[in-house]
Amino acid sequence: MSASRNRHIVISLDFGTTYSGAAWAMADSPHEHYLVNQWPGKPPSSLNGLTSEKVPTEIAFEYNESGPTCFWGSEIPESMPRHQWIKLALDPTQKGPALHLSSVDHRGAPPPYHALPEDLVTNYLHCIHDHLMRVLESKIGAAFGAMTWEYVVTVPAIWTDAAKAKTNSCAQKAGLGKISSTRMISEPEAAAIHALQSSNPRALSVGDAIVLCDAGGGTVDLITFSIIELKPRLRLKEEAPGSGALCGSTFLNHRFQEFLKKKLSSDPGWGRDTLEEALQRFETVAKRTFDGDLGTEFTIPVPGICDNEDLGVYRGKIKISGRDMESIFHPILKQVLNLVEGQIGTSSERVSAVFLVGGFGQSPYLRKFIQERISPDIEVIQVVNGWTAVVRGALIKVVSEIAPSLETISVESRIARKHYGFVITLPFDPTYHDHRKK
């Protein structure tokens, strides 16, 4: 490896629908990977405001006489309207359930009338890039100024070439690098690389296929690989084109909100504060721990609602039954199951496992729901560090190309997403051509 490559840094960026994450590694220490867990907080621009594996994919602006002030991620004040789901505007061809952002989060701001959706993405990527440069400088010191760096950015498997081109253009404008130097990898492929490295591949055999299901906040992405070699290097073949849909865990929040409105909105004490606290408890506790047990009960705060025996409200709290939770989850889980079954049905090889990654992928009910409805011969596995599997796998892929000695996974062949042909016209030859086609 040349001296210049020794002074090189690879940064992987998982630009997600609801949360984004980053990781980095130095070319001269390819085995040492670092996940960024320092994010700006309040006041803005502080380096250590929040410790988390990811940061919200949100951006907001405050306008005054001197011009707009930008806030992003976790530094946005609680009550400030913010732009959410900005990533999805890059590929308007993707259709999902009707969902108005304000119905999920009342703080959601409408699309700006004075700017293109790509401008919001560029602004967000610029903010996260500036922050990552500051983080790297604080970790490496003065030597960082003389080092080179490159990004690998993850994108959904179902995105069009136009959407990928827009992402690349936004990344370049945001300062991540020239279009030719910014790498891209599909999110489920990156997650598969992490999943197979963090799991025990000895349970898999040559010819086995695995489905990788990346279930996040907004989208669910899938891809299927078969194993063509285990040693000396794990080599994979794509068995089905990536698939996916807008059926992530944010849609559970939406369904819970509609459930609560239907049940309590007629009460005179119903208001925004009631919904905020209820959604907070659902998001942090109920949604993440519900495992499908119909005997489970969750206590949800509903401030402002008076005691009401008919509604089940007592001392500002309401109990949500396991059956209610099942009714909230079921339509979304059914969509995810259909995607998984579609990948299993497309594969020409025997599928032996389904790997779940992403924040929604850690749901115990999602795993149970899928396992109970597919073949018992297929094991459903929740991957270690599943929430950050995409950013970890993307980093592994690029670093292994810089340091060939690093043991990793290679994808040998892929399924073509498009087919090209030519329409030609030939003179009719009665000695050769079918008379009916004259």
Automatic annotation (TrEMBL):
Domain of life, source organism: Eukaryota
Gene3D superfamilies registered for this protein in UniProt: 3.30.420.40, Actin, Chain A, domain 4
UniProt keyword Nucleotidyltransferase present: no
The entry's keywords: ATP-binding, Nucleotide-binding
Protein name, per record: Uncharacterized protein
Originating species: Paecilomyces lecythidis
Pfam (any one): HSP70
